[in-house]
Structures
1.
Amino acid sequence: MIFPVVLCGGSGTRLWPSSRKAYPKQFISLLGDESLYQTTLRRLSGERFDRPLVMTNEAFRFLASQQAAGVGLADARVVVEPCLRDTGPAVLAAALMIARDAGADALVLVAPSDHVIPDVAGFRAAVDRGVAAAERGALVTFGVTPDRPETGYGYLELSAPPDPARPAIPLRSFREKPDTETAERMLAAGNFLWNAGIFLFRAGDAIAAFEAHAPFLMEPVREAVGKGVKDLNLFRLDEAAYSAARSISFDYAVMEKAETVHAVPFDCGWSDLGSWDALWKEENPDDDGVATHGSVTAVDCHDSYLRSEEDGMHLTALGVKDIVAVAMRDAVLVADRSRVQDIKGLVAGLRAAQVRQADDYPRFHRPWGWYETLCIDNRFQVKRIMVHPGGVLSLQSHMHRSEHWVVVSGTAEVTVGDEVRLVTENESVYIPLGARHRMANPGKLPMYLIEVQTGAYLGEDDIVRYEDAYGRG
């Protein structure tokens, strides 16, 4: 049995504006109908795998649970990291939990939540090739056989060229992202792989490696696990202890220092989708080098990626070359394809200028569903709200606004003061300023409503919560 650990706390911005801090790329349906996180969970499920252990942060705890349930893995163990500490403490916490529950010899497979691996059977075969080395005590990493001199990935230097007779090869070194000339030499040498950031080991061996090479992490992370508490269907690591852990990656903390590291080569169409150029490749460009997604028309265009994220927004391009254009309701990106690696810096500049689109997503996800603003002006705001089946908003009141709810699909159970009643399609209810109220969806289908707010202040912090099914303050 293999115990999967999915690292799901990242908030990358290299695919901005589609991926933002409030709703990062692992949760987005970038390719197909499922999110990258959901396809990762599917890849790591089946008779050979135990239920996944998902390491995420406070902001994504409910998203991680909901999307896991969406692919039939409602029993996924979601672990909440109270603060960001990179992958080193996260991997150690997972190894300690699995060793405690399943024993030190339990095999642990650690994988990022936001990678693309189309050949699932090939990936699982690669995992099988690493099992023997892991059971002998090695820390196993997985590397992608390179087909070009890529400068956007780190590299693994093998002690010998890949050999089918040796499924796991001792690793000589880790290499940082190279320049073009160095990448070309690595490709020609034949004993370098792209670092995929996927690891296989026995839980006890990983813990021993941390004790040897990163002992400074042991006390705070062990305490964070020991003092962690179950919270609803989540496990929450102790905040004070985990905050004391140093922020460091698993590679830096352990893998680059350990002596018993082996690498398994694989070639399964892997991509970390680290840039719009990588997504352009995944979208299968046509003979003119143009790839499109969504509602797009391209005329006389070449070597470009054109993407519309909105059903009601049609993106058109005429005579463009070597660009990336991504259109969303609240933000549009137009970039030279050769500059897409600089988008992270662009977003940092937007954040410094306090541009809300730098981090905020047009649709705000909550444990009960989501809402989006359709229109806002002085003293009024119109929202569309979706509540999951069984979802329930907190019992709350507002100091500065009143609300009018119109149900447009499904049935809402509405509480206003001491009155509780059902509101069905095309019916409405008024919430006076200061009244205690809540809504819930008692049905089996999503419920949608339109909310009209009026008042002197419409900010989301104008909420006084009295009861909350999700433990929010």
2.
Amino acid sequence: MSHTAHIPSHRKPRQRASKTALRAGVAGGVLSTIAVAGAAGPAQAEPVTQTIEMPTITAGLSTSVAASAQATQLVALDLETQAAEDAAATAAAKTATKAKAEAVRKAEAEKKAKAAAKAKAEAAERASRTAERTTLSASTGSSASASSSSRVSSSATGSAASVVAFAQSQVGDAYVSGGTGPNSWDCSGLVQAAFRTVGVDLPRVSQDQSTAGTQVSLDNLQPGDILYWGGAGSAYHVGIYVGGGQFVGAQNSSTGVVQKSLDYDPPSGAVRVL
């Protein structure tokens, strides 16, 4: 047997025995460690039992959740209350707006009713005065009464007589600046209205009326002539000559519409339209 063949048969078994012993020692140590850990296990379980107190934690959490839920309910209740208050305020505002609109409507209706009643009363008064003036005009035109004939010159005829009759029927009315009747006049408003009864449309103001016809001498006046005070084209007052040396005019707020002699307030000139 060779030297080489002898070595494997004697040395290799030893090596395996040594490794087996080492492995057995390691395994034994591991098993011992496991055994010690197993023995020590029960002693380390006691802190776990003391730490896990689920009822206490659960009770605290339940209290917090309940408090949070109550707070949420209170907030929701506050929001609901605020919403109800806002809705009530909006409804009240709408009601107030409607009430105000209704009050305005009623006030307007009452105002219109008063205006209509006033207009009706004025119309009735105008109708009454018109009837009186018609009677007076007819009496004057036909010379049926002595008083009328004394007011109007016997030479007043036709349109001139109507103008004179209208002017005389306004005697006693009030003077109001800018007045055009039926119960108050200014000087040019009265003259314009008198000539309108015979279809003659005169200018509105004294300055224009003083040049509306043919200039005539104050020594050659006829009933129905327009008298003016001031310059022709710049007159500040007008009246109507009614004959017999007299005129009718809306003089001022103190006298109103009067019939006076030319000597009372001598005019500056005259124009003839008819």
